[in-house]
Automatic annotation (TrEMBL):
<dbReference type="InterPro" id="IPR012349">
    <property type="entry name" value="Split_barrel_FMN-bd"/>
</dbReference>
<dbReference type="InterPro" id="IPR052019">
    <property type="entry name" value="F420H2_bilvrd_red/Heme_oxyg"/>
</dbReference>
<dbReference type="Pfam" id="PF01243">
    <property type="entry name" value="PNPOx_N"/>
</dbReference>
<keyword id="KW-0560">Oxidoreductase</keyword>
<feature type="domain" description="Pyridoxamine 5'-phosphate oxidase N-terminal">
    <location>
        <begin position="16"/>
        <end position="87"/>
    </location>
</feature>
<dbReference type="GO" id="GO:0016627">
    <property type="term" value="F:oxidoreductase activity, acting on the CH-CH group of donors"/>
</dbReference>
<dbReference type="InterPro" id="IPR011576">
    <property type="entry name" value="Pyridox_Oxase_N"/>
</dbReference>
<dbReference type="GO" id="GO:0005829">
    <property type="term" value="C:cytosol"/>
</dbReference>
<feature type="region of interest" description="Disordered">
    <location>
        <begin position="69"/>
        <end position="90"/>
    </location>
</feature>
<protein>
    <submittedName>
        <fullName>Pyridoxamine 5'-phosphate oxidase</fullName>
    </submittedName>
</protein>
<dbReference type="GO" id="GO:0070967">
    <property type="term" value="F:coenzyme F420 binding"/>
</dbReference>
């Protein structure tokens, strides 16, 4: 697995683009797996700091229990409505996936704090069409275009 810090050191331009997309609004969307394997979508806040890509959760929240049982997670950046003619000024969006590891210790109000080890980072934007820039450990950055 790769930490956000390792990823950002190896791919600074893509890391900056992803962080920029996560910064457009406060609340992102997180997908976890319920005990029966079905998906759960929850709102979350994402923080990037010296620990890496950090997710928090209120004490006892279902999404925290999901991650304690099965740490696989995907997080989608906040989105904004396309602006400009035909959405030409759309800033794009980012997605990350990986494994969430809970940080031990006492956190304010009994909150759960998780750091995500990455298996995927994707930034989607417009470049005369749809441009999908993705990164996976061991494969590096790949760019695909759709018209």
């Amino acid at each position: 697995m790769t930490t956000w810090t390792e990823f950002a050191a190896a791919e600074p331009a893509l890391a900056a683009a992803a962080r920029e997309r996560f910064a457009v609004r406060k609340h992102a969307t997180m997908a976890t797996l319920r005990a029966d394997g079905s998906p759960r979508i929850s709102g979350t806040e994402v923080e990037f700091d010296e620990r890496g890509l950090v997710l928090g959760s209120m004490s006892g929240a279902l999404k925290a229990r999901d991650l304690q049982r099965d740490p696989r997670v995907a997080v989608h950046s906040p989105t904004v409505d396309p602006a400009g003619e035909g959405g030409a000024d759309w800033p794009g969006e980012a997605k990350v996936a990986g494994v969430a590891r809970e940080l031990p210790g006492e956190h304010e109000g009994g909150a759960h704090v998780f750091v995500v080890e990455l298996t995927e980072v994707v930034v989607t934007d417009l470049d005369g069409g749809l441009r999908i820039t993705s990164w996976h450990p061991g494969r590096g950055v790949e760019v695909r275009h759709r018209s």
